[in-house]
Amino acid sequence: MNFETSKNLAGIGAILLFIGVLPYINSYLVLPLIGIVLLLIGLKGLSEYYYEAGVFNNALYGTITVIVGVIVVAAIAFTALLGLISVLMPSWNGNWATLASAFSQADWTSWSTNLTFSEIAPYIGLFFLDYVLMFVFALVAALLLRRSLGLLSAKTGIGLFGATGTVLLVGGVLTIVLIGYLLLWVAMLLFAIALFQVRQPMPPQTTSPPPMYQAQA
Predict the structure, then answer these.
(1) Number of Cβ atoms within 10 Å of the Cβ of 188
(2) Which of 12, 77, 115, 217 has an alpha carbon within 20 to 30 A of 20's alpha carbon?
(3) Cβ neighbours of 61 (radius 10 Å)
(4) CB 68 within 8 A of CB 41
(5) Is residue 14 a contact partner of residue 35, using CB atoms and an 8 Å limit?
(6) pLDDT confidence bin for 34, thresholds 50/70/90
């Protein structure tokens, strides 16, 4: 895969990641998934062109961290939610179709008189643990992606890659609050802009040495 193809694939992937999470685009995560694949393929090509494996490897490890984090966080949140529902609505049979009906028929007054904090504390603790894990996964992924962008900035000479890495890192730190996710989203747009600024270096031009003139006898 040549330089231009790698650059364009990575740029298109970053754009798909940026627009794929917009609320009015009902892509069911298809666009972000395609974007991740294209971005990694493009970065693989760029890492081979610049002979810098860290550009791809760090981005790959960061992506794996995000995927694992999403699975772990979703599993814990689902477990905590099921446990909390079982405590608040013990008559619910586990059928999600009947959840709304069970919720409307629940005895709200008994919650305030019979429900104790010790019954719901484990599930509240799970939600808190989930929140902390979400922050940790986001921070580790941001650090890995920032390292990849730093190497790419050094190889291409484009400072916007370094700035994008900084925005990613700050966004990862601030995932403890909602603004962090906004910064991570903006970073994808900056990443795409930086990728389309990359130009293939011109090969060094070789000049033939001047001819040797022999002195006439």
Answers:
(1) 24
(2) 77
(3) 17
(4) no
(5) yes
(6) very high
Q: Are 19 and 210 in contact (CB under 8 A)?
A: no
For residues 121-141, one letter each, b for 16 or more C-beta atoms within 10 angstroms of the residue's C-beta and e for the rest, the string is: eebeebeeebeeebbebbbbb
**123 close to 84: Cβ distance less than 8 angstroms:** yes
Query: What are the structure tokens assigned to 154, written together?
Result: 């050094």
pTM of the predicted model, to two decimals? 0.82
| Rounded Cα gap, residues 43 and 53, in angstroms | 10
DSSP-derived secondary structure for 132-150: HHHHHHHHHHHHHHHHHHH
- Report whether 59 contacts 39 (CB < 8 A): yes
pLDDT for 67-125, tens place per residue?
999 999 999 999 998 888 777 776 666 666 666 666 666 655 555 556 677 778 888 99
Q: Which two tokens stand for residue 71?
A: 């699975």
Please, what is the Cα angle at 113 between 109 and 119, to 5 degrees?
110
pLDDT at 134 over 80: yes
* Amino acid occupying residue 121: A
Q: Which amino acid is at 27?
A: S
Q: Which tokens belong to 201?
A: 């270096």
